[in-house]
Amino acid sequence: MLPFCQTFNIDFPVIQGGMIWCSGWRLASAVSEAGGLGIIGAGSMHPEILAEHITKCRQATKKPFGVNLPLTYPQIDELIQIIISQMVPVVITSAGSPAKYTEIFHNHGIKVMHVVSNLKFALKSQQAGVDAVIAEGFEAGGHNGSEETTTLVLLQVLRPHLSIPLLAAGGIGTGSAMLAAMALGADGVQIGSLFAASAESSAHDAFKKQIINSAEGDTRLSLKSIGGVRLLKNRFSEEVRSLEVSGALAEELKQFLGHGRAKKGMFEGDLDEGELEIGQIAATINHVAPVSEIMERLKMEFVEAKSALCKLA
């Protein structure tokens, strides 16, 4: 068993992305049952809803799972107390510095991974004592770094400077892509888009259909001035682009966004006015599949790719 898998008590080095409006207890428990580490996305949940999802996830699987916790969440202290009281084994922090919270989680036996998009924050995360760093490249869906560094480049930048486990995120859609990331020093991968389009995802069926119908070039990194986010192109994203091209200030963009755009698009299925967050790898997804099928395919492809490379030696 790989060292990373031993540390986090999983069978296969795949961590599910904690995607807002997609990552409820059904998805998290299915990924954990299939041998990966399922993640509940707390970024779209009120505290009482998170507590409910943790309870249901634990009822659905006896295997480890985690919670993704955006550190800019308004009720973060309440979410942390729920995570601690429910004894969730793993937390993935993002959108902020983990320094303030890592020791708190460690004091309660909770492992911490932190999402970064550059070397500066990877080193700060390691200094803060996190158990692993997730390197999220430009290809990823949702919010990612303004540097636009691709996943493969980011791994090569980070690996020589880190002594803790490193995971690759962004653009991972096959077992062979997993192997490529691990050849560059990754100890495992975090996968979002494949699971967003899974049968167990809590995303709206219309959003899932839009994902499988998308082609290369159908996503764009937008809103870099207020926190870059990769979106499927639709009426809303084109309006955002027009504002950005015209030189709209950050406050103007925030006012245009308003509230609930992500929920409207991904959870309620408004494909025109909603925010449709997904990675570039969406272009390769051609059907909605159950998590068990996705994970079996990843495992098979990983073994086949490894075998093929060994024959080149």
What is the H/E order?
A: HEHEHEHEHEHEEHEHEHHEEHHHH
Radius of gyration: 18 Å
CATH topology of the largest domain: TIM Barrel
Q: How many runs of DSSP E, i.e. beta strands?
A: 11
- Unreliable stretches covering 5 or more consecutive residues: none
- How much strand? 15-25%
Q: What proportion of the residues is helical, as a percent range?
A: 40-55%
Task: Quickly give the CATH architecture of the largest domain.
Answer: Alpha-Beta Barrel
Structural class of the secondary structure composition?
Answer: alpha/beta
Determine the N-to-C terminus distance. Answer: 23 Å
CATH superfamily of the largest domain, by name, is Aldolase class I
Number of domains: 2
What gross morphology would you assign?
globular
Main sheet makeup: 8 strands, parallel
Number of helices: 14
The mean pLDDT is 93
- Order of strands, main sheet, comes to 1-9-8-6-5-4-3-2
Give the class-level CATH name of the largest domain.
Alpha Beta
Structure, explained:
- With 313 residues, the chain is an alpha/beta fold.
- The protein folds into 2 domains: 3-202 and 285-312, Aldolase class I (TIM Barrel, Alpha-Beta Barrel), CATH 3.20.20; 212-282, no CATH class.
- It is 43% helix and 15% strand.
- The strands form 2 sheets. The chain has an 8-stranded parallel β-sheet with strand order 1-9-8-6-5-4-3-2. The protein has a 3-stranded antiparallel β-sheet with strand order 7-11-10, with helices on one face.
- Strand 4, helix 5 and strand 5 (111-116) form a beta-alpha-beta unit.
- Helix 5 (99-106) runs parallel beside helix 6.
- The radius of gyration is 18 Å and the shape is globular.
- The relative contact order is 0.13.
- The mean pLDDT is 93.
